[in-house]
Structures
1.
Amino acid sequence: MTMNRRSLIGAAGLALAAPGLESPQAAESAKPATKAPPVTKILAQWILASSYDTLPENVRREGVRSFLNWVGVAIGGSHHETVDVAVAALQPFSGPPQAGLFGRAERFDIMNAAFLSGVASHIFDFDDTHLKTIIHPAGPVASAILAYAQMKPVSGKDFLDALVVGIETECRIGNAVYPNHYDAGWHITGTCGPFGAAAAVGKLMGLTEPQMVYALGLAASQPVGLRESFGSMNKSFNPGRAASNGLFAAILAAKGFTSSDGMIEAKRGWANTISTKQDWSEITDGLGTRYEALLNTYKPFACGIVMHPTIDAGVQIRDQDHVRPEDIARVDLKVHPLVLELTGKTAPKTGLEGKFSIYHAAAIALVEGAGGEKQFSDRAVNDPRVVALRQKVVPVITPGIDAAQVDMTVTLTDGRSFHRRIEHAIGSVEKPMSDAQLEAKFTDLAAGVLPETQAKRVMQMCWSLPELTDVGEVARAGVQGA
Amino acid sequence: MTMNRRSLIGAAGLALAAPGLESPQAAESAKPATKAPPVTKILAQWILASSYDTLPENVRREGVRSFLNWVGVAIGGSHHETVDVAVAALQPFSGPPQAGLFGRAERFDIMNAAFLSGVASHIFDFDDTHLKTIIHPAGPVASAILAYAQMKPVSGKDFLDALVVGIETECRIGNAVYPNHYDAGWHITGTCGPFGAAAAVGKLMGLTEPQMVYALGLAASQPVGLRESFGSMNKSFNPGRAASNGLFAAILAAKGFTSSDGMIEAKRGWANTISTKQDWSEITDGLGTRYEALLNTYKPFACGIVMHPTIDAGVQIRDQDHVRPEDIARVDLKVHPLVLELTGKTAPKTGLEGKFSIYHAAAIALVEGAGGEKQFSDRAVNDPRVVALRQKVVPVITPGIDAAQVDMTVTLTDGRSFHRRIEHAIGSVEKPMSDAQLEAKFTDLAAGVLPETQAKRVMQMCWSLPELTDVGEVARAGVQGA
C-alpha cells in the first residue's frame, strides 16, 4: 500500500472527529483565519539552495566563531556529572562506534553522539546566545552535523554552510514565535533546535525538496523542553535531544518517510499549535540576505548576562588601573533593578550560588581579573580575599541604567577612585568578543580536560574550518587520548 | 560538581531573563495563579505502589485484551511500507540486537525496537482507543515495555501491571488537558504517550520515587506529534516516538539524570505550557480505584468510528437474515450529519478512499459480512458486486440519530425488507468486542504475515499473559520465522 497523504488525510479526521463528535467547524473557529504562506516549502527551498559560495564573508566568519566557541564549551562540559550519567545510561543501547565526544574516549552511534554532545555543550550555560530569541544556536545544529561528519566525510566548506543554514532555520522559526512561545514555558532552544539540526543534516545528506519538507515536518513533531526543568540536568538534556531529534528526522526523511507539506504554518501545524504568535515574515523575509548568525553572541563570563557589565568593569579597573584588591575601601555599583532581583545574594557559599551574586561578580573580577567557570567555583567564592572584598560592594538601583549596563566606582583606602561606565558589556552584539578573547575562553575551558598542545591543535583546526577536507578530523582530534 | 536543582534554578532565570530584559512578574502574570497539587509526585507514588495483586479482576482482563489487540495490529502493520522505510533508515544506527519486531526478522536495540513497534501498531489506525481522550493507549506503553522485556526477563504479572499503570498514567494526564490540548492541534497519543511509557518502563526497572518523578519530567520534555501530519507516515511516527521517548526518559532517570520535581503541574511545566485546560483532579482522584483501562475500546472495523454502526447493521442483516447482495433493491440509512460530512464519498476508487465512503461501508458489510483491513483494500472497493450495491445505498440525515448510531433498512427486489437500528455499535464501551471477536480480528490481521499455527500460538500466549514467567517469549514467538 502506498501512503498518499491527500487520500489518507481524512482517515485521521474521521477516526478522530467521530469519537468525541467534535464538530470540525467548531474546532476551526477557535483558530486564527490568517492564510499563511507556504513557509515550510519556502524554507526548504532556501536551505537546499544555500552553499558556502553564497555566504557573505562576515557570515562565514561568524559561523567559524560560533563553531569554535561551541567546541570549547563541549570540551569544557565533557566530564560534568550530567554527561557521565547520560553516557553510563546510554552505552548499553548504543549502535556502531560511529562518533566520539570531545574530551572523552567513548564512541557511540551518531544519534546518541549527537544527544551527548548537545548535553555537554550546554551544561555550563556558557554556550552561544541568539539574544533576539535566547536560543543557544550552535548546540542542536553542531552536535548533529559533527556526529554525522564522523560517519560520512564532510568538507569544511559544506560543514560551515550546513551550520549557518541550521542556525538560520532554528533562529528564524524562533523569531516567528518569540516571545509568546518562550513566555508560555517552552525552552525555545529545544523546541526550535530540531528544525536547525534537521535542516543542517538534511543539507549534508543531499535531501530532495520533498524530503527536506518532510524532515522539517518530522522535526516539528518533536519539540523538546519546558522552562520548569531549568536548574536540573533536564535543561542541558533539551539541546541534546533537539540535536538527536533533528538528526532522526533527516535520517528518516532521506529514506522516504513522509510528513505534511506544511508542518510549520498549517492550522494544526507547529507554530499555530505551540505559540499564540506567528510572524511568518520572520521566517521568509530576506532569506540569503539577512543572516541571524550575525546576531550570535558568546558569553565571556560563566554566569547570567546581567552580571557581565560588572565583571567587565572590574576586570578593566584591575588590569588597566593596576588596582590591588587589598587597597580597595569600597566598590559602588549603579545598577538596574533586575540585577539585584536576580543576583542579590550577598554571601554565596558555593560556586553555583556565586552565579547569583553581583557582590561576588564585582569582587572576583577585581581579585582575579576574570569571570570564567573557575571564578564561579566553590574555591573562588570562599577565597578570603574575595569574601573580604565582596562585603565592600555597594550596588544601588539607579534610573537610566539598563540591565545590560553598570556604572562602577572603586574607591581606595588612600582616597583615590577609579570609574568605569559600561554601556555595552564585552560579549554583547555591540561589543563582541574578539577572536583572542574567544581563544582565551576556549583555552580556559579545555584546561584540565585536554593537554594544552591538543587543545591548541583542535582550536587551530576550528579556525581553519573552511580549509578542512574532512571535518571529522576535528572531532577525532578532540577526543581523550587523541 | 553536583547539580543541586534549588541552587541552580535561578541560573536559568538569570541567563534567560536578562537578555530580553523580560520582567519575570510580567511573564508570571500571563499565567493562571491556581495553586496546583503536587501532581507529579502523587502520580509517581501511585505508579510505584501499584502491583498485579492490587489490580481488580476486570482491569486485569481489560489489560490482557488491550495487549492482545495491540499485538494483532502490530503484526498486521509489520510489513507496511512505513515500517519498511523506518527499518531501512534506522538499521545502520541500531545498537545490540536486544529486541525483535512482530512479523519481521530484524533485531534492534530496545530504543529503536520500541519506536518501530509503535509505528507498526498504529499504521492502520486500527489500534485501541480511549474514547474519552481519543488516545490510543497501548501503542506507546506496550511498544516500550515489550522491547524492554526482551532484554530483561519480566513476568506476565509484572508486565500486565506495568501496562495498566502506563495506560492509566497517559490517559489520566490526557483527561486533564482534553479537549483543549487536542483541539489546539496536538496529537494527544504522542504528547501523553511518553508519560505512559516512562511510567511503565520505570516501574519494571524498579525506579525510586525521585527517579520516577524525574522520568516523568523527562517524558514531559518530549511531547510528540501535531494533527497536521495526519494522513502521512508521520501519524504513526508519533506513538512510536512516544514509546522510545518514554523509554529514553526512564533509562536516563534510572542512572540519576535529574529533572524538576513538578514537571506536570508547575507554572512553566507541561500542562500549563501545552494546554489551556488543566484539571488536576483527573490525574489524582481515585487512583487505584477508578481505572481508565476499563474505558479502552477496540475497533472491529478498519475505518473511522462513524462508519462502524452501518457495518455492524449490514453484517447482522447479512448473517442473521440471510440476505444475498444480488437480491437487494435498496439500502436506506438514517444517519447523523457528521457521517455524510466525513464519509460522503459515493464512488471510492481505492481502499483508502473506501474508508471515507458510507456507501462502501454498507455495501461491503452486506456483501462480505466484515469490515477488516481486507474490506478496505483496492480489491474490495472495485469488486463489481460492491460497486453495484453501493449505488443502491441511500443515506438520509435524520434528527435523533447520533454519529455513533444508524438506522438501516434493506429492501429486497421481492419487496421484503429487513431492519436494524444500532444504538451502540459493536466495539463501543456499551457493546465491547467479545473475546471471540478480538480473536477473529487478530487472526485476520495476522493472516498473510505469520503462518496460521504461529499466529494462533502467539494469540494463546497473549491470553495467558499473567501466567507467563518471561513475556519476552511472546515477542520471540511472534517474529518472522520463529
2.
Amino acid sequence: MYHDFEPVKNRPVYIQVMDYVKRLITEGALLAHQKLPSTRELSTLLRVSRNSVIEAYTRLEEDGFLYVANNQGSFVAASSVPAEPPVCQLEWKPRLNERASLAEELDLMKHGIRAGKGTISFTSIAPDEKLFDLDPVKRAFLDRMAVEGNVLLNYGYAKGYKPLIDYLLQYMSHKGVDLHGKDLLVTSGFTEGLDIVLSALSRSNGAILCENPTHNTAIKNFKLHGFAITGIGMEPDGVHLGELERALRERTYDCAYFVPSYHNPTGIVMSPEKRMALMRLMARYQVPVIEDGFNEELRYSGSHVAPLIATAGRGNGVIYVGSFSKVLFPGLRVGWVLADRELIGYLESLKRARTIHTSTIDQAILYQYLYNGNLDKYVRKARAVYKRKYEWTLECCRTYLPYAQVSGDGGLHLFLTFEESFRTRELLAACSRKGVIFTPGDIFYTDGKGGNTLRLGFSRVSDEDIAKGIRIIGEQAELLRS
Amino acid sequence: MYHDFEPVKNRPVYIQVMDYVKRLITEGALLAHQKLPSTRELSTLLRVSRNSVIEAYTRLEEDGFLYVANNQGSFVAASSVPAEPPVCQLEWKPRLNERASLAEELDLMKHGIRAGKGTISFTSIAPDEKLFDLDPVKRAFLDRMAVEGNVLLNYGYAKGYKPLIDYLLQYMSHKGVDLHGKDLLVTSGFTEGLDIVLSALSRSNGAILCENPTHNTAIKNFKLHGFAITGIGMEPDGVHLGELERALRERTYDCAYFVPSYHNPTGIVMSPEKRMALMRLMARYQVPVIEDGFNEELRYSGSHVAPLIATAGRGNGVIYVGSFSKVLFPGLRVGWVLADRELIGYLESLKRARTIHTSTIDQAILYQYLYNGNLDKYVRKARAVYKRKYEWTLECCRTYLPYAQVSGDGGLHLFLTFEESFRTRELLAACSRKGVIFTPGDIFYTDGKGGNTLRLGFSRVSDEDIAKGIRIIGEQAELLRS
C-alpha cells in the first residue's frame, strides 16, 4: 500500500494526497476505523512534504472521511467505506465435529453449579490462595531472570526446561522410582499430560479401565478420545481387585487409569499391599497403567507411600502424570509425565505439534522456587492448615450428618455417601436456595450411579463457613429424608 | 502404612520396631532407595520413644537393610528388597496410534538439520534474544504480582486472563476488525490456537486449502488432524486466485488457511486488493478461513495492511490466530484466536479439556508489558534492526547468488528460488560440510515440490556471518551448477 502514488505537476500536492487516500477508502483498501499512517509516516511513504499530508488529513476530516481519536491519530470513518465488504455469514454448529460438541456438552464450568455472591461453596478443590507465599515466587523469578533472562524469553524445548527436568527426575527417584530406561516430559499441567497420553493411545474401539467413581475431568477426556470406559468399584483401601480381574478377563484394554493417593473424589489412599497386588495383576494382563499423582504431596502423615511407578521397579508399564497444582500454585501450568523413554519420545513430538513447549517462565519460576528450598517449608505449612481443616470438616459432618458415610484420608476434600435412595441432586437444589453448594457425586461415576453421593471440597472455605454450610446441608438432608 | 504396629510387652521396643520395618521391606511395602520417615516422625507414628527408633535405625543400617545419605535421612538399601517387584515390560510402539507415529515422523526438531558448534545457521526465524528488553519484563511481572499475586498463582479461566482479553480485543479493533458477534480465546501460543481450531473442524475425509508453499508446522498439523491438503500456488502479491477458484469449484473444503502478511516461507505480503478479492471468493463458496497473523507486527513500513478478518467486516467466516512470538518473546507462550462468538465458545471448552488454561503468569506479564506501553518502543527498535538485516541479507544474496530469485518483503527471512533443476538438498549437504546450514524449501510444499528453493532466516545471524554464510552458499551453488 502507498506505493502507487504518482504525483502530477501543477496541481496542489495536498489535493492529490486527499484524492489518493479517498481512492484507497472507496476501493476498500482502507477499512472503517482503520488507523492511517501518521502525517510523518505518510509524508515519507509518499515522498511529499509533511505539511501536505497535514493539510490533506485536515480536509479529509472536514469531509467526514477521517476522524481523529484523542491523540491516537487519524482513523477511517465508518460512513466513508464502501457499502459492504464481502459478507460471509456461516452457521458454525454444523461445521463442528463431534469432539467439539462433546467438549462443550461435558464442560462443567459452563453447565455446572454456579456460586452466587455470598454462597458457601464446597465445589472447589483448588488450594487456598491465602496460603501462597509470594515473596519466594518473586525471588525465584528475579533470580532466574538474572541468570538467563534472554534465554527464558526465547523459544525453549518441547521436552521441557532442562534444569527442571533434572530436578523432577531426582525428585521422582527419591520416591523410589527406578529411572532406568525412563524419561520425563514437562507439560502444561497435569491435564495436558493426561490428554497427550490419551491422544497417543486412543484408537477406534479403544477401551480404558478406571476406578469408579473417578476424577471427572479424566472421564471427560476419556470420552473425548473415544474410549469405552469400564469403571471398577472402590473398597476402603482402594480399587476392588476381584472386580478388576473379572474385567481384565472379559476383554482387552488399551490402558488403565488409577489415582492411588487421595483419590478423587473418595479421598482414599490405596494401601501398599494393594498397590503391589494391583501391579502384579496389570503385569499379568500386560495393560499399561496411567498413574495420576495429582494429590500425592498432600499426605498429612510423614509416611511415604511409594507411587505405582515405583512399585513397578524396572518395568515400563506405568505412565506417571504428576503436578504440584494441588500443593503449590495451579496458576503456574506445569506438570510432568514420567514413563518409558521410547514412549516419552513420541509424547514429546505430540507436545511439540500442540504447543511447541510449556511456558519457560513458569518452568523457570517453579525450578528456582524448588531449588531455593521453598517446597518443604511451604508444604509443611499447607499440610498443617489443610489437616486441621480436614479434621474440622470431618467433625462437622459427624455432628450434622451422622447418617452419611464419610470417606477421605486427607487431601482437600471429603466424599459423603447417603442411603441408597437419597438423591444429592435434590439436596443440592434445596441447599442452593439456602446459599450452600457442593459437587453432586454422580459426575464422578462412569455408569450414571452415585446419585446418593457428594463431594465436599473444604480447602477454600473458612472454618466458620464449613460449620455453617454443613449444618445447612444437614438440615436440608433431614427435610428430604423425612 | 505404619498403622498396624502392635507392640507386645516384655520385649525391647527397638527390636520390635526393627522387625516391623524389616517386614515392610521384605513384603515389598517399602521399596529400594525409598526414604524412611525421620526418627521423630516414626516415633510419633508408632507411638514409641524416639530413642527406640534411633536404635532400630542404627541396627538396621548395620544389618544392611538401610543406608544413610548425607543428612537426608535413612533409605531402604537395594539389596534388602524382595527379589523383584512385578515386572511388566511392554513394547510401546505397537500400542501407539497413527497420530503418535506421524507426529514423531514429522518432527523436524528430531529429524531436521542440526547445527554443530560454530556453524552459521540460517534455519531459525525466532527473534534475536539480544534485542530483548528484560527490565520492562521484570517490571511488568512485579507490577502485576503487587496488584494480584495470589490470584495469578491460582487457577484462572480457560478463555484467558480478563485484562489481556480486553486489551487484545481493543488491539484487534484498531486493526479495523469489526468485533460485533466476535469473541477471543487466549491460547498457549499460535500453535495451540491453530491446533484447537483444527481439532474442532477436522472430520473423516476432511479437506483443507492453503498456499503452496506454506508454514511447515501448519502442514504437519493438517496431516495430524487427517486433512487432505490442497496447496495453491503463489504470485508476487499473494495466493493465485484463479488456481484457488478452480480448486473451490472442484470439491468442498472444510476450511482454508492463509498467511497474508510476511508469508512463511516466501515472505510475501498479500496486497489489499487481493485480500478483498480473496474474501469475496471465500464468501461465495462459504469456506471458513483460518488467518495466520503470526508475522503481522513485523511490517517495516508505517503502512497498515488490514488483516483478512478486518476485510471480512461483520462476516463471521474468518478465524484469526495471532501471536506476538515473532515480535516479542516466544518464551511467553501466549497467542489468541479471534472469531465468531459461538465458535469461540466451543473452542474454549476444547481448550479447557486440554490444558485448563494458559499460564496466568505469562498472560499477566504480557498484559502489563503492553499496558505499560513497551510494545511500540520495542517494536520500533526491533523493526529497525531487522530491516537493516533484511536489506543486508538481500544485498548479500544479490552479490553472491545473482542467479537465484529472491522473495520476501520483510519479516525475519528470505526465500530463494534457483533454476528448476537445482537441488537445494544437495546444496545443503555441501554447505553443511563448510559449516553453513539453511532450511531446504521442500518441507514447506504440500506436493513434494520446491526442491529448488530454500529459506534463509537471518534474525539470529550476525552481519558478518550473514555475508560469510551467503558467500559460502554461493560458492557451493556455483560448484553444483557447473
